[in-house]
Amino acid sequence: MDTQRTGMSRRSAVIYCRTATTGQRERDPLMEQEARCRQLATDCDYAVADGGVYREVAGGMEYRDWAQLSAMRDAIRRGGVDAVIVCSLDRLGRDLYKSVCLVEEFSASGVAFLTVEGDDMLPFFKMIREFHTLLEGVS
């Protein structure tokens, strides 16, 4: 559908790309992630605005200390973001529990979460989070 002719605006997405290290690879993993995420945005009819790509090299520290992830979360809180796109859930962090908490944070803000590699496991991850919350209530 041509949004120019219908007067409708396209949905807005942000992209988050992360790698733990840059290493000595011939290819740039952040560029590869961004290209794959941009393709998914196009396939799902999302527009990625200038400044809507958050890229960082971060690992081994608390995810709250990741500057670009924090900047993306701030953009979501300000509004105007309809979706977050990542290559895979583990790009939000290796800690499954914290990653699922972030996805739930996006959802609570009305923001969809899309992964290039599919999100078939997200219901399972959410179940794990609910179980973890239940256990916290028992202790």
Keywords:
single chain, 139 residues, alpha/beta, Rossmann fold, four-stranded parallel beta sheet, 5 helices, 44% helix, globular, disordered N terminus
Characterization of this structure:
With 139 residues, this protein is α/β, with parallel strands linked by helices. It has a single domain, classed as Resolvase, N-terminal catalytic domain (Rossmann fold). The protein has five helices and four strands, in the order αβαβαβαβα. Strands 2-1-3-4 form a four-stranded parallel β-sheet, sandwiched between helices. Helix 2 links the parallel strand 1 and strand 2. Helix 4 crosses helix 5. It starts with a helix and ends with a helix. The N terminus is likely disordered.
